[in-house]
Specification:
Blueprint: E1 7-16, E2 22-25, E3 32-35, H1 43-49, E4 57-62, E5 76-80, E6 95-100, E7 103-113, E8 116-120, E9 130-141, H2 144-149
Antiparallel strand pairs: 1-2, 1-3, 1-9, 4-9, 5-8, 6-7, 7-8
Amino acid sequence: MEIAAARVASIHYTLTGDDGRIIDQSSDSRPLTYFHGAGNIIPGLEKALAGKQAGDTLQVDVPPEEAYGVRNEGMVQVLPREAFQGVEKVEPGMQFQASSERGPLLVTVVEVDGDKVRIDGNHPLAGQTLHFDVRVLEVRDSTEAEKQTGRVAQD
């Protein structure tokens, strides 16, 4: 059976950056299982998996435009320290949920300089080409409940 819209696929993957460093990977005991065609994984990977079957392996290079987007420097801002009321110590790497005109946005503190805090609303992998090594483990028809939600039913 091939991976196609409204089917459920299970894959093992290793994601690396341009430098060859492992960014993420599935564990042997927990493959990534997703509902194909509902945007549950990045578009470039989903497109590359279409038509694959259990046992297939592939290497996929996904450009930023088909992954987490290109970096947008307009999403980097400097805020006054008092914008973080209730947080005792603000440090680089901390993440906060902010409100934007498009809804909630996860921002990362990238620098703290006295009373000024620089935040970045870009996804941490924005602007990067992502390199996937993938092995397809299983493809199955989705259940009616999965079709209704566009998500894999949890055991």
